[in-house]
Amino acid sequence: MGKRKSRKLKPTTKKKIKLETTFDCPFCNHKDSVECELDNKEKKYRYGTASCWVCEEGYSTRINGLS
Fold this sequence. Notes:
- The protein is mainly β.
- The chain has no helices and four strands.
- The chain has a four-stranded antiparallel sheet with strand order 1-2-3-4, with no helix packed on it.
- One of its GO terms (molecular function) is zinc ion binding.
- Transcription elongation factor implicated in the maintenance of proper chromatin structure in actively transcribed regions.
- It is found in: Nucleus.
């Protein structure tokens, strides 16, 4: 008699969490007026920018990977 084949569990993949790209502005308090952009093209200089299209305030900083 042979052994019974056990069922192998398929490896589960983690779902990527999508982050929001529009936020409320902390300066002028307009809803969904701040847009965020991440520039990942160059590995040496990766920047993220957030800018409000109502009051024209902006902020940019270097980003790092959370891998």
